Amino acid sequence: MAYHATVLRQLLQCVPRLEFERLATKLDGPRRSDALSRWSQFLALMVGHVGQRHSLRGIESALINDFSLCHHLDPRSVNRSALARGNEKLNADFFQELFGLLYMRLQPSGSVPGKRFRFKGKLFSLDGSLTNRWM
């Protein structure tokens, strides 16, 4: 049987985990060991966005019912109350800086003049705007 990476796995390959953790430590400082981690929050929000879930309850059910997510995250560690608390209390500047970090990684390095960036696969765009599209 051939192995095919999920869309979530392909998206996560673009996120440098070590730099992600450094940024989380820099902006959040020390946190309780039982608190929702930034990585768990990020994965839950990404699952919600890619899976077109429109509520915390929908994200929670997606995490509990999709066994393939167990590779990336313990689904019992993210419930809707912990996710709501994390979204409310944690600094949102983290995601702005993460976007800047990822954007800089995708910029052409200039090492090969005249060589343009080409992408041959499907391209997915994640919307990070703060406006509500249903208003």
Describe the structure.
The protein is an all-alpha fold. The chain has one domain. Helix content is 48%, strand content 0%. The protein is built from six helices and no strands. Helix 3 crosses helix 4. The longest helix has 14 residues. It starts with 6 loop residues before the first helix and ends in a 29-residue tail after the last helix.
Instruction: Please provide the count of β strands.
Output: 0
CA radius of gyration = 17 Å
Instruction: Please state the structural category.
Output: mainly alpha
The number of helical segments is 6
Give the percentage of residues in beta strands: under 5%
Features:
135 residues; globular; mainly alpha; 0% strand
How are the SSEs placed, and which strands pair?
Blueprint: H1 7-12, H2 17-28, H3 38-50, H4 56-65, H5 80-89, H6 93-106
Task: Please give a quick description of this structure.
This protein is mainly alpha-helical.
